[in-house]
Design a protein that fits this description.
The protein is α/β, with parallel strands linked by helices. It has one domain: TIM Barrel. It is built from twelve helices and eight strands. Strands 1-2-3-4-5-6-7-8 form an eight-stranded parallel beta barrel, surrounded by five helices. The chain binds phosphoenolpyruvate. The site of phosphoenolpyruvate has 14 residues, from strand 8.
Length: 251
């Protein structure tokens, strides 16, 4: 049985003290939740302090990015081992904001995902079409290319443990979330392509999250769809109250 994952992407928000305050409130509010995995992904600067705060709790820690090399002359970058060392178990890779503003390609995303595995981090690989691509009716083509290129060359074990986050770019931070039917359709498609790449077992086992303006008001309709194994949440994860409500929908 797959454990659902509720991941909060805090993006470039929260000072260290704000991040610690948020996770402290969250920790107390969800301490009884055992049936889902809870993950927070603060900015790099807050990882150490947040890790100290969540030690021994049911909250996991993730980074929002990593660099693919293990060490060396790469000024300003953070290696997978450093992220592991600071207490992370997950890393978000290829978020659409990184693809858009930092020109990350499927090829780079794939290298980063493999580098995450080397450091025993679980990569959460983000894919999703832009509004223009949806309007041009090329969503399936775009998603297939992203899956085949970003998720290629994994071992069978890696193919089961990676997490895929479907995040239509037009729904991220816009308040416009995709209809549950649209999400279900794409999640089924993702599993179909994934099955061609890694077989039915991996396609059944891989967790596919949805992300895009998920909040406590719209999550109940999404929850009715069978192929959504959790959520990657931006805005609504920045307040303990709304993130707690989302987590409790799984109970
Ligand atoms: C995200 O950052 O991955 C995201 C889905 O953001 P939001 O929930 O704010 O749309």
């Amino acid at each position: 049985m797959k454990k659902p994952l509720m991941a909060g992407n805090w993006k470039m928000n929260k000072t260290v003290s704000e991040a610690v305050g948020l996770v402290k409130t969250l920790k107390n509010a969800v301490s009884d939740v055992m049936n889902i995995e809870i993950l927070v992904c603060p900015a790099f600067t807050a990882l150490y302090a947040v890790n100290n705060e969540i030690r021994g709790s049911n909250i996991n820690l993730g980074a929002q990015n990593l660099f693919l090399e293990p060490k060396g002359a790469f000024t300003g970058e953070i290696s997978p081992m450093m992220i592991k060392d600071i207490g992370c178990s997950y890393a978000i890779i290829g978020h659409s904001e990184r693809r858009q503003y930092f020109f990350e390609t499927n090829e780079l995303v794939n290298k980063k995902a493999k580098a995450a595995f080397v450091a025993t981090l679980v990569p959460i690989v983000c894919i999703g079409e832009t509004l223009k691509e949806r309007e041009d009716n090329v969503t399936f083509k775009v998603i297939e290319k992203q899956i085949r290129e970003s998720l290629s060359g994994f071992t069978l074990e890696q193919s089961c443990s990676v997490v895929i986050a479907y995040e239509p770019v037009w729904a991220i931070g816009t308040g416009k979330n995709a209809y549950p039917e649209q999400v279900q359709e794409i999640h089924c498609f993702i599993r179909k392509i994934y099955e061609q790449m890694y077989g039915k077992n991996a396609a059944d086992k891989v967790r596919v999250l949805y992300g895009g303006s998920v909040n406590p008001r719209n999550v109940s309709d999404l929850m009715k769809k069978p192929d959504i194994d959790g959520y990657l949440v931006g805005g609504a994860s920045l307040e303990a109250e709304s993130f707690t409500k989302l987590i409790r929908y799984f109970k």
